[in-house]
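Open question from group meeting: does this chain pack into something compact, or does most of it stay loose? Before anyone orders reagents, we agreed to write out a predicted structure and look at it together. Recording both the input and the output here so the notebook holds the full record.
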Amino acid sequence: MKIDFWIFIIFLLQLQTCSGLEVTVPSNPETGMAGSSVVVPCIYSLDFNQMEPKLLLVRWIFRDKVLLMFSKKDLTSYGRATLNKEAAMNGNVSLLLYGLKVEDEGMYTCSVEYNGELHLKEVQLRVEASPSVEVTMSSTKADDKMNLDCLVKGFYPKDVNVTWYRNGEIVNNGIITSEPRREGNGTYDVNSTLVIISSKIRKDELAECRVEHVSMGTPIKEHFVLTQIGCKRNSFTLVSINPVTIFLVMVLCHGLYWALCNRLKSKSNVVDEESVKPAVEPEADVQKCPRMGEIMVPRLVNGTKAFLQCTISGYCPGNLNVTWLWMKPGTQQLLPISPNDNKTATVEIKREKDKTYTCTACLSINVSVSGENSAQYVCQVEHPSLERPLQKRTGNLHVIGIPVIKVRRETRRKKTYLTAVIEGIFPLNVTIMWSRMKNNKLVDYPETDKQKKSSINLDGTYNVISSIKDKQSRARKSKSFKVTINHESLESPIQQTILREEGVYYLLTENGRNRLP
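Structure tokens returned:
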């Protein structure tokens, strides 16, 4: 009998200390771009209505070191890490790492302890860095050879694919590619050399270095016009080592001139306009000015990758220089794009049937509210036919944040509230309509019966919480409620329907109904 008493006491102590704590993290690795910020998710759940903040302790651990600690509503950070304190009190203790580096890659441990109950969950973080690509020409000891060097810098992870093309066809021979070399910041560099035989260069031939890497959605393509390389070298060869050929060319030109004069004399004295036109230079040497189209800007959604595109056409010769510039939000200064900005510029050149060129210039950007909203981008073009560069601007960019919507039931001071939690929305102007079924009709709640508050997240988006009170929560009669959320980021308003049945609340979905906690 005495043993049963102590078993009962232990059982009561377990009931008292059990908090129903649950911690959830993603099963798949999270990925962040070097130089940017990344969120490492971690969510916990318990009975928030009876939660005591002083009993909560959150720690983030990386390589056996504590990065961050949150206790009694106080945050202590030991590095480039933080979290949202308000969100932490509502179950979201996701870690925000800023100024991401390659060395930040690894396993992170989310430690959540409440009232002595401890849960540990691990999240794998992978870091990626996009490469920059530069193609240059270098001479060799052999008179008839030259090297095109494709230098690929600043990429991570190590695996990269570098492919050479000539006139759209893959080159398999005459390529020397080094092993990737690791730099001090953890990224890699690699150089690939294409050996060119000058005598085998065809007119207006294009060489292309194409780089593929896991950090990029599309390959980087860098082009080089081989005709311009080969012509100068061949001209020096004629002058210096083959004077006999030059003599024969001069004799031939003299003969053609004599024949042309005789033909003109045989014509009538009436000289038409066409007969006195000066000789026209070969079409390849005619300069044609480029035409720039407007910069195409897609829908910019926070947390996604977007591509700005500008088409330049109708120009000749093919040596065009494209530069992307940008104006950060809140500034008036144009700055050149650099790899550290986590933006990647690519160009694709095509020769048209009329022997002019068309260039498609793309800029890949990682869209964020804090980094891109109200920013401006400029595509600048330089060409021998232009006295000054051409420019096209995007105007101020507009970023949207598509919200995640959750519905829950809350009990506060013995009163029941239905709450819609809208996370990650931008801009803040959102319309939330609550309605209830009354006399077989949906009746809107007046504004005075609704509660609404908002908070800003670290990435610049907002969280919005909207609540209504169910004054008849204990009634056994069935009743339905509806919340409608409308925002510019949504293709159509989102509606959620809640059913109260014998005091129990259910969220109605296409697959049935789910009980609200």
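Observations to bring back to the group:
The chain has four domains: 2-128, 129-241, 286-400, 402-515.
The two ends are 39 Å apart (CA to CA).
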